[in-house]
Amino acid sequence: MAGGAMKYRHLSRSSSHRQALLRNLVTSLFTHESIQTTWPKAKEAQRLAEKLVTLGKKNTSATRRRAQEIFYYPLNHLDNLFTTIRARYLHRPGGYTRVLRIEPLNKHHDQAPSAILELVDGPKDMRFHMTAKTLVRERASEEGVREITAKNIAKVTRYRSNGMEELEREVKKMEARVGDEELKEKVRWKVDERPREGWKLERLGRKGQRT
């Protein structure tokens, strides 16, 4: 209808090319759990990915045939969708994916707005790792854990299996990593504090002798 609202983004492609593009993005998403692309493509691929997870949760012969039509490599992804992904989101009412804005990927060309499309509650859930990093920093501060951080903790662990235990394991890993980095920094400063003037004069003297 003329003047009506656009129901989807055309992405400057024909219908067949657009569908092939979205199928490719969704296949990559379920392969790697997280992908980087432009913002419009991520938003359109998110819609198709949400439908795929819903098909996986229903787990019928009809939904299996429909999912097989969407994946480019159904033999590699159908079992994952109807087992691992289905079990992960069985009690989640919706919101299986997340789109996060990032800096443009092509900084020297078109500067197109870019984004990360990821499956939530997975091994590459960026918000989960960012919350753990924030928790490490605030526990080490004098102010303690803020209210907004406590709310974020509740969000990222609400539907995750053993969410609090996984969060504490991630926090311990980051604390150990921070301790190693601080130790390396102290060693680096001790090395840099060594006197180098005599070494420079010696090298200059040898160079002068050679010439």
Q: How would you sum up this structure in a few lines?
A:
By secondary structure, the chain is mainly alpha-helical. It has eight helices and three strands, in the order αβαααββαααα.
Structure description:
The protein has about 210 residues and is mainly alpha-helical. It has helices at about 15-30, 40-60, 60-70, 75-90, 125-140, 145-155, 165-190, 195-210, and strands at about 35-40, 95-100, 115-120. A three-stranded antiparallel beta sheet has the order 1-3-2, covered by helices on one side. α2 (about 40-60) packs across α4 (about 75-90) and α3 crosses α4 (about 75-90). The protein is globular, with a radius of gyration of 25 Å. The protein starts with 14 loop residues before the first helix and ends with a helix.
In what order do the strands lie side by side in the largest sheet? 1-3-2
Order of helices and strands: HEHHHEEHHHH
* Mean pLDDT over the full residue set: 84
Number of DSSP E strands: 3
Distance between the termini: 85 Å
Provide the descriptors you would attach to this structure in a database record.
211 residues, mainly alpha, 3-stranded antiparallel β-sheet, 8 helices, 3 strands
Draw up the topology in text.
Blueprint: H1 15-32, E1 34-38, H2 39-58, H3 61-70, H4 74-88, E2 97-102, E3 114-119, H5 126-140, H6 147-157, H7 163-192, H8 197-210
Antiparallel strand pairs: 1-3, 2-3
Helix pairs in contact: 1-2, 2-3, 2-4, 3-4, 5-6, 5-7
